[in-house]
Amino acid sequence: xxxxxxxxxxxxxxxxxxxxxxxxxxxxxxxxxxxxxxxxxxxxxxxxxxxxxxxxxxxxxxxxxxxxxxxxxxxxxxxxxxxxxxxxxxxxxxxxxxxxxxxxxxxxxxxxxxxxxxxxxxxxxxxxxxxxxxxxxxxxxxxxxxxxxxxxxxxxxxxxxxxxxxxxxxx
Length: 171
Hints:
Layout: H1 2-26, H2 30-47, H3 57-80, H4 86-92, H5 104-117, H6 120-130, H7 135-142, H8 146-170
Helix pairs in contact: 1-2, 1-3, 1-6, 2-3, 3-6, 3-7, 4-8, 5-8, 6-8, 7-8
């Protein structure tokens, strides 16, 4: 029990802000995000009972957090079925050639809105990528191959860029 608490405290100390960003990447509503964050922390603490150190603490923490968030998203999805597939976003996004928004905060908000529209696996990959994880670490978390992760990151970045500039011209 003490080892579990130690591992949990270490994970929160080292990755707490990243886990908060991960929760924000899965849930836009502040109240629901608070619930998701609490569930992530509970599941993370609980998971250290079976942690066998075959992967790094970071990989374990993100795997648990992403799995918890995906379960949360799937439960929410059953409630409101609002997700748009990557292909639908790509079809609706038209490259406008507009200039990027100078206001960094507004740009981050736009990016966050677009990421929230992605399916859970694509969102998981992009959030890990934005946390500067390499393709091997993302592959370890998602269960995909590193090559597949690289291909998906490239495709998602292209779709997000198109959606970003489309949203800018619509504003």
